[in-house]
Amino acid sequence: MRRTLKMILPVVSVVLLTAGTAFAAHPLITDDTGTQGKGKFQLEVNGEIGRDREILSGIETRETSAGLETVLSGGLTDTVDLVVAVPWVWSRVKEGGVVGSDENGPGDVALELKWRFLEYKGFSLAVKPGMTFPSGNENRGLGNGKVSYGATMIATQELDPFTFHLNLAYTHNEFKLDLDKESNRSDIWHASLAATYEVVKDLQLVANVGMESNGDRGNNTWPAFVLGGAIYSLTENLDVDLGVKGGLNKQEPDLALMAGVAWRF
To answer: pTM for the whole thing?
Structure first.
């Protein structure tokens, strides 16, 4: 049973991480209060590839993971967006040089509604409830197998040329398989802080730190990360971005490289 959990948990972690980072201004994990505006849309394609290495009882475990997300945001009103994200995830785990698991496929589709309900002199607040639907194969560790839900409180403060964002989030995961119920926590809390700095016109540098509950029931240490990157506007409606994310403790993957493109229309 323990060996089975070792092989499945990394794949489940990739799925949950991908779902949790779908809607921020890539490469940031922390979301902002910005919305598209009534009748306007944004299409994003974001990718991430990461690696992690651990040695337990003299046995080396290496995980390589990747994710690709397509995210469509649409403005229902000037202050309300509807967001749909479709993830594709992949994870390979080697234990002692032997491949223990190698899975890829679609993850659980996510649907969120962002409402910016307060704006005052550069400060704004938004709430973002959301749900994930069991489109991923739970038997291969690619989804929960049941509908899950959560909500995020978002605060943004503009202090030109800097902008700061704070997220406090809660997610409740429902699992179909008894093995997933046994090995994964259902209730996940998240806190993160991000900052952007406009270096020159059309170029922003970004930084992000955060932590959240450990999804592994057998571990009480919260994974924590730090991230740095840049967003460049090729045109008024087309952005490209790059980022590097590192773990601040052993519970977070060692390193991940991120890239994305966003088109507004």
So the answer is: 0.88
